[in-house]
Here is the input.
Amino acid sequence: QVQLVESGGGLVQAGGSLRLSCAASGRTFSSYAMGWFRQAPGKEREFVAAISWSGGSRYYADSVKGRFTISRDNAKNTVYLQMNSLKPEDTAVYYCAADQRVNYGLSSIMDTYDYWGQGTQVTVSS
Here is the structure.
């Protein structure tokens, strides 16, 4: 069982930056691929970024590529999402998720993730 707790959300002006953190419990965190998703009001949850267990592979949605960076620190059981050049359309609740599959590629599909955090609100004002 893995528990995930996001933090770092808040209100920021367009063009600004935020860094989200996701702290995981459990000794097997370092074996999981991790992902970030987001859900804006009235919209479906969508994929943002994913990172392999080692951090050697990363995968981004086209909408955030070049602006967001996913990283992880397995010694701290934490995954990060650095968000730069934020836009009002980035406003959403951001969720981290853990994928416990082994020897599979990174996924943008919600159903492949086994554990989810409670989310953290990011609001970007224009």
In short: The CA atoms of residues 35 and 53 lie 11 Å apart. The chain is about 0% helix and 45% strand. The first strand starts at residue 4 and ends at 7. The mean pLDDT is 95.
